[in-house]
Amino acid sequence: MRRVPVIQSRNATSLTVRWRAWVNAPRRGMGPVVGYVLYYRSRNETDWKQLPQTRSRMQTITGLEASHSYEITVSAVHESGLIGPPSPPAETATCGRMC
Fold first, then answer.
1. Per-residue pLDDT in tens (0 to 9) along the chain, 99 residues
2. Is the pTM above the cut of 0.85?
3. What's the burial of 25, exposed, middle or buried (CB within 10 Å: 0-12/13-18/19+)?
4. Which CATH number is correct for 6-93, 3.40.50.10860, 3.40.47.10, 2.60.40.10, 3.30.2130.10?
5. How many degrees, rounded to 5, is the angle at CA 89 between CA 64 and CA 98?
6. Residue ranges of the domains in the chain?
7. How far is the CA of 79 from the CAs of 12, 27, 76, in angstroms?
8. How far apart are CA 74 and CA 90, in angstroms?
9. Are 17 and 70 in contact (CB under 8 A)?
């Protein structure tokens, strides 16, 4: 099951995101989930950026613009190396000078 990622904390230049473990059965030949990839983009961009693959279910995105809106999604990485479909996106914004 893929759910919207949750914004754990935020400040002017970073967002900490957490998500639940994937519990859906993998498609034939994909194998179990061995990690996750977090993707993000500014609301005015079309291309997604990604953080390195992790086994954790929480990551922090740094180097963001203050008072800016972002979309964030997560995909599961399977033992076969295949990356599954992304979660529904979370929409959030960084803070201004102070949160």
1. 578 999 999 999 999 999 998 766 556 667 788 999 999 999 889 999 999 999 999 999 999 999 999 999 999 998 888 898 999 999 999 998 666
2. yes
3. exposed
4. 2.60.40.10
5. 35
6. 6-93
7. 36, 12, 10
8. 10
9. no
Query: Rounded to an integer, what distance in angstroms lies between the CA atom of residue 28 and that of residue 57?
Result: 24
| Tokens encoding 16 | 């900490």
pLDDT, tens digit, 9 for 90 and up, residues 43-64? 889 999 999 999 999 999 999 9
Residues facing residue 42 across a β-bridge: 70
Tokens coding 48? 């997604």
> What is the side-by-side order of every strand in the sheet holding 49-50?
49-50, 33-42, 69-78, 90-93
CA–CA separation, 12 vs 71, rounded Å? Answer: 16
